[in-house]
Amino acid sequence: MNKEYPFYEHIKINNLLELIELKKDDDIAFSYKESDKIIKKSYKDFYNEAILLSNYFYNKYNNKHIALIGNNTYNWILTYFGIVLSGNVAVPIDKDYDLDLITKLCKNSDVKDIYYSYDYNSSYEELKFNLNKLEDVNKYLDEGKKYSNKYKIDNDKLCTIFFTSGTTGANKGVMLSQKNIACNIYQASSIFKPDIGSTVSILPYHHAFGLITAVFKPFYYGMEIYINYSLKYIMEDLKEIKPTTLFVVPTFIEMFYKQIWKTARRSKKDKTLSKLIKISNLLLKVKIDIRKKLFKSITDSFGGNLSYIICGGAYLDQKYIDWFYSIGINILNGYGITEAAPVLGVNRNNFRKRGSVGHIVKDLEVKIVSNEICVKGDNIMLGYYKDNKASKEVLKDNWFYTGDLGYIDEDNFLYITGRKKNIIILSNGENVSPEVIEEELSHDEAVCEVVVYSMNNQLIAEVYPEDGYLGDQEYFDNLIYNYNLDKPKNRQIALVKLRNEEFIKNNNRKILRDKIGGE
Amino acid sequence: MEEKVINIISSVCEIDKKDIKLDSNLINDLELESLDVVDLVVAFEKEFNIKIDDKDIKQFQTVEDIVKYLEK
User: Fold this and answer.
1) Mean pLDDT of all residues in chain A?
2) How far apart are CA B63 and CA B11, in angstroms?
3) Shared-domain flag, residues A409 and A473
4) In the CATH hierarchy, which fold is given to the domain comprising B2-71?
5) Which of A115, A220, A426, A508 has the most CB within a 10 Å radius?
6) Same domain, yes or no, for A27 and A44?
7) Cα A480 from chain centroid?
8) Which of B14, B41, B58 is opposite residue A232, by nearest beta carbon?
9) What is the pTM of this model?
10) Nearest by CB to A120, which of B33, B38, B54?
11) What are the chain A neighbours of B38 within 8 Å (beta carbons)?
12) CB-CB under 8 Å, B33 with A509
């Protein structure tokens, strides 16, 4: 551990009851809009309501698996706490899955009861389960007054099943205990310190990152969490709420970037913006920082108080991090995985490295086995629900094998180089991570998409060119020639194949490698 | 309606009008990201003074889907 950058000190919590007991005052915990009026709930309100709701759930269900389906709302979060604080198991499910998939996931996770948002989608009513509306929370709270919750929290017991949305195969149910979740809140807080203020919660709650990192963690810091009801209102909400910290996935960064340029082009200020960025970057080199003044109109569109954007969930191009830094917004790139509840590393407020997914969190052991990142700590899941085989493949002697390849540097910063399942093994035993090559090639302006695979023991780069380069074999032969110049023979690309259409992708816009003709 | 929709897509997404056809797929042909589509929805709401539910957004696969939805 670098002595100049010690871990931040925070109170350790062991379960989710301890989380809501930390702070029971009148500070605002949650705010949200209801018919254009902002409703505010204090930390005390939230504690009292969560306890009442847990009374209701304790009386009604005994160790049951209960699905939560709906858009981000205060009632969703409150119901989650009602379920887990009464010893039941919450099963958050993607609100946009079709009814067949919801039915399948509910059956796979032994769910009989569903709490759903009628306002979001009334067709959930067709689901053949015991249905309850999230909009009726006040009714449940009233009921809760009649009972008490005698459940004593078992930190190690299953409390939530999150479904992974992997690029291959079926969704796996990741089993987390309260200890797993509480531990990760504490771990990640050891390396990130937000500016006091508020955050706007925009990531969906059926993902560990959207719920544990983007809601529970700001709650633990004592921030105000504004719940964005719909992505349609995101820019309005940012202007109105003026958050200090945002938790996002890369798509949002790309959207913000596009929005800023679009606005600049419309007001014919895009050339000025380019120039200002260049000037500011030069001044920064000589330690003169006038970014706040120069880019005020841009940062004002995010409310004007935004200091940090924490980004995780997928690969983020360093170019965005650099660009936002130029205009005075710090993107801290991180790395997590649902099975680790979820954060493993994040770049720090004043300690960041280009290309890294950050500093490894506190109380986490990391080892690299044949390039694969393996981790051990109290945040690691109990296993996959009813899938012993898959659990055994990734959990060995309390170590979780992430399936991600990477390395750690001397300052305990983590770098990801690819996915294990994508690795190409050539006949000479040489392992090649295609993502590393793809990343390098994708920097060329003519490359729109590229996938590297092996055929007849040779590396092939298949490229979907940008407009204007379609079918230009000569250009790409030249590109590969230059790429190969400084590579060892066995890592050189033998052939570049051009496509006329883009690669087939899944719903999350990730390229389906199985659909490409490698071996 | 068709022309109005194409005008809005062209202006919001900065795509040349001639590249937007009724059967253009928003994601595959016009290369929009899911958040661009949300952006479009906001523009349609303003232009036609209507409210489009979030759950309906995923129905919008092609330009024609939007036209049909708005005509309804």
Assistant:
1) 91
2) 14
3) no
4) 1.10.1200
5) A115
6) yes
7) 34
8) B41
9) 0.85
10) B54
11) 231-232, 234
12) yes
Q: Are residues A111 and A94 in the same domain?
A: yes
What's the CATH number where A144 sits? 3.40.50.12780
Place of tokens 């001397």: A410
A203 touches A176 (CB < 8 A): no
pLDDT over threshold 90, residue A511: no
Shared domain for A83 and A186, answered yes or no, is: yes
Give residue A433's pLDDT. Answer: 81
Q: Which residues of B touch A254 (CB under 8 A)?
A: 33, 35
H or E stretch at A137: helix A137-144
* Gap from A352 CA to chain B (nearest CA, Å): 28
With CB atoms and an 8 Å threshold, state whether B38 touches A120. no
Do A87 and A122 have their domain in common? yes
- Report whether A462 contacts A438 (CB < 8 A): no
Nearest by CB to residue B33, choosing from A71, A255, A262, is: A255
Beta bridge partners of A67: A91, A114
Overall domain count for chain A: 3
Q: What is the pLDDT of residues A394-431, one digit of tens each?
A: 999 999 999 999 999 999 999 998 888 787 877 666 77
pLDDT tens per residue across span A258-311: 889 988 988 899 999 999 999 999 999 999 999 999 999 999 999 999 999 999
Cross-chain Cβ contact A120/B42 below 8 Å: no
Range of A498's domain?
423-515
**How many CA atoms are closer than 13 Å to the CA of A214, on its beta-carbon side?**
30
| CB-CB contact of A178 with A155 (8 Å) | yes
Phi, psi of A222 (to 5 degrees): 85, 25
CATH code of the domain containing A508: 3.30.300.30
Mutation target among A229, A231, A238, A504 for the B interface, most CBs of B within 10 A:
A231
Residues of B in contact with A255 (CB under 8 A): 33, 35-36, 39
**Which residue among B34, B42, B55 places its CB closest to the CB of A232?**
B42
The model's confidence at residue B71, banded by pLDDT at 50, 70 and 90, is confident
Examine the domain organization and report whether A153 and A27 are in the same domain. yes
**Is A425 exposed, middle or buried (CB count within 10 Å of its CB: 0-12, 13-18, 19+)?**
exposed
Tell whether A119 is covered by a domain: yes
The answer to whether the CB atoms of B35 and A231 lie below 8 A apart is yes
Q: Token digits for A278?
A: 């260049």
